[in-house]
Write a structure and sequence with these properties.
It is a single chain. The chain is an alpha+beta fold. It folds into four domains: about 50 residues, no CATH class; about 120 residues, Butyryl-Coa Dehydrogenase, subunit A, domain 1; about 100 residues, Butyryl-CoA Dehydrogenase, subunit A, domain 2; about 140 residues, Butyryl-CoA Dehydrogenase, subunit A, domain 3 (Up-down Bundle), CATH 1.20.140.10. The protein contains 15 helices and eleven strands. Helix 11 runs antiparallel to helix 14. It is elongated. The mean pLDDT is about 90.
């Protein structure tokens, strides 16, 4: 006999509007008598049949911009972000895993990258667009969302290298280099970190410079210098042996005292061509010394400006991992259903999205402060700490949600996990940036 529970289950599947129309053509008494004779197995078959006739639910596309940060852009700015997104999806996404695996840079993309018109985006004059830092941040997020290595290439070129000349260069140097760097005709690199000096660069540079007439002689080594294996110029920071102050130099790739060797066997940012640079009696003319770089304070000004970009990179990296993992989970089935229908998976993705949205909100405000001209070291450092730590967490959870397949590059999560490790360390480790914030909020320095 049919139980009450069986009836409740069946009635829950019935469209009573359709039944009302059906009743006009059928004797309901006979219908009910027939239904009462049905066995539970017959009811299950009817229920299954009804399920098949129901329209499938629309599955929302993965969207890591849950609070619609793009709404802060005007029409022109949004158009540029869309242009960058389409470029990354069309030109970079299909080849990212291939070039990451073989640790090579897709040189053929540089002319196409130049056509985007985003080089030196926030600088005013010198063929640069003079746009907002908010726009640049969203563009950096968009690039890193597809590949963090390409966003690093952009950050070195447009941020560190161009920024050094923009902030510390003479008017003549700006006119000479910035327009050609803006359109990627000249590729730049930034040489600050050394083999034995990372966090202590503020007072411990071992690369030296000494002036003799109109020529400077540079000696020392630099390590982890992105773009340096193929850059046309590299900004080298060195300590003046006579004054003990840090100075910056524009060193050309054909300088006989300059040697750049590719660093091999990396497990992070493999597309980025990092170099070990050796300077051996490297002669540089006074005209190629950054004329307004006279101490490490000037170097720090460049780093402050670009550190915000690293926070945006971390957001993009986390977003890429989150969206790719969600896309996988929507297609992955276990126990006869998509795993996104399981409570634990939904909780996992909700947690990732909450962290990602908090990171986006922080960097959006950070860029607004930068546009207001009020950015301080501690502002950039706080965002760099929070976002790189959050990026590590989100990429790890993204891998977890993809299960064992998460370690396969083809699922487009593993690359983000590895690249998050570099973001966590470069442009100031988590600990160093925490101490910058700590100094600001306590009034006491704990560096030594």
């Amino acid at each position: 006999m049919t139980t009450a529970q069986d009836w409740v289950h069946l009635l829950g599947k019935i469209d009573f509007v359709k039944i009302a129309k059906f009743a006009k053509r059928v004797d309901l008494g006979e219908l009910l008598e027939t239904l009462n004779k049905l066995e539970p197995s017959d009811i299950q078959k009817i229920s299954a049949s009804l399920k098949k006739t129901q329209k499938p639910k629309m599955i929302p596309a993965p969207n890591g911009d849950f609070y619609n940060m793009q709404s802060f852009l005007d029409t022109e700015e949004l158009s540029l972000v869309t242009k960058v997104r389409e470029f990354m999806l069309k030109e970079v996404a299909p080849i990212a895993n291939e070039y990451w695996a073989k640790a090579e840079f897709p040189m053929h993309l540089i002319p196409k990258f130049a056509q985007l018109g985003i080089g030196g985006l926030v600088y005013k004059g010198y063929s640069c667009p003079g746009k907002r830092f908010v726009l640049e941040g969203l563009i950096v997020q968009e690039i890193a969302r597809t590949d963090v290595s390409i966003s690093t290439f952009f950050g070195v070129q447009s941020g560190l290298a161009m920024g050094s000349i923009y902030v510390c260069g003479s008017e003549e140097q700006k006119q000479k280099y910035l327009p050609k760097m803006q359109n990627f005709e000249i590729i730049g690199a930034f040489g600050l970190t050394e083999p034995e000096v990372g966090s202590a660069v503020a007072g411990g540079l071992t690369t030296t410079c000494k002036r003799e007439g109109d020529t400077w002689t540079l000696n020392g080594q630099k390590k982890w210098i992105g773009n340096a294996t193929f850059s046309d110029i590299t900004i080298i920071w060195a300590r003046d042996v006579d004054t003990d102050q840090v100075k910056g130099f524009i060193v050309k790739k054909d300088n006989p005292g300059f040697k750049a060797e590719k660093i091999e066997h990396k497990i992070s940012l493999r597309i980025v061509q990092n170099a070990l640079i050796t300077l051996t009696n490297c002669k540089v003319k006074e005209e190629d010394r950054l004329q307004n770089a006279n101490s490490f304070k000037n170097t720090a000004e460049v780093l402050r400006m670009t550190r915000a970009g690293v926070a945006w990179q971390a957001v993009g990296c986390a977003r890429g991992a989150y969206e790719n993992a969600l896309s996988y989970a929507q297609k992955r089935k276990q126990f006869g259903r998509a795993i996104t229908g399981f409570q634990l998976i939904q909780d996992l993705f909700s947690h990732m999205l909450a962290k990602l949205t908090a990171m986006q909100t922080m960097v959006m405000r950070l860029s607004e402060i930068q546009d207001e001209g009020k950015l301080l070291d501690e502002h950039a450092s706080l965002a760099k700490v929070f976002c790189t730590v959050g990026c590590r967490e989100i990429t790890s959870l993204a891998r977890e949600s993809v299960g064992g397949n998460g370690i396969l590059m083809e699922e487009n999560v593993a690359r983000f996990i590895a690249d998050a490790e570099a973001l966590y360390s470069y442009e100031g480790t988590k600990q160093i940036n925490s101490l910058i914030v700590g100094r600001a909020i306590t009034g006491l320095s704990a560096f030594i």
